[in-house]
Amino acid sequence: IMTILLVFHFGTFANFKHYYLHFIKVHLHSEFPSAVSYNRFVELESRVFFKLMLFLKLYAFGRCTGISFVDSTMIPVCHNLRRYANKVFKGIATNGKGTMGWCHGFKLHFVCNDRGEFITFCLTGANVDDRNPKVWQVPAKELYGKLFADKGYISPKLFESLFDDGIHLVTGIKANRKNRLMPLWDTIMLRKRYIIECINDMLKNTGKLVHSRHRSINN
């Protein structure tokens, strides 16, 4: 089950039902001779949730190198006009506003190193601020050195809290703020944030992180 799910997210298929019925059951029949029906497979998906999380933790995460990048992205579960009719995530998904506008769903906060490897992540409601202390409870234990972020992470309290944990938060300067000197190295590394932007793009376009086939919370 885990293999089938992972191949789908790293493949070029946009429709999981078509992928399972016409690729797994036909072209990969020799590799999966006892593949169950599509409806049964959807029922079995929830059984591997914790195993996938364990696999992610053991084999998919990298280590902090002292240079890290942080970003967040919205994960909508439905169109904004249908947010009041959504029953699958009723009471769990929230309304939040990001750089691309309003969203009903969740927000993924993630950190990567200078090699483009995931270090850690946190999934919250869409209305949770990036500077919320609860968001940083887990990342603060995994990071050290310099952490580069966009202007949405500007917060004196967050800077002091992370600095006490051995993390130097580096952000840009807002246009309406007083200008301040910044080391040339920090200025150059802020421009390297395209690394995490590329990861964000791959998660949504290649990994199909945002989709519309939510039939239950587990799936």
UniProtKB/TrEMBL annotation:
<feature type="domain" description="Transposase DDE">
    <location>
        <begin position="62"/>
        <end position="217"/>
    </location>
</feature>
<dbReference type="Pfam" id="PF13612">
    <property type="entry name" value="DDE_Tnp_1_3"/>
</dbReference>
<dbReference type="InterPro" id="IPR012337">
    <property type="entry name" value="RNaseH-like_sf"/>
</dbReference>
<protein>
    <submittedName>
        <fullName>IS982 family transposase</fullName>
    </submittedName>
</protein>
<dbReference type="InterPro" id="IPR025668">
    <property type="entry name" value="Tnp_DDE_dom"/>
</dbReference>
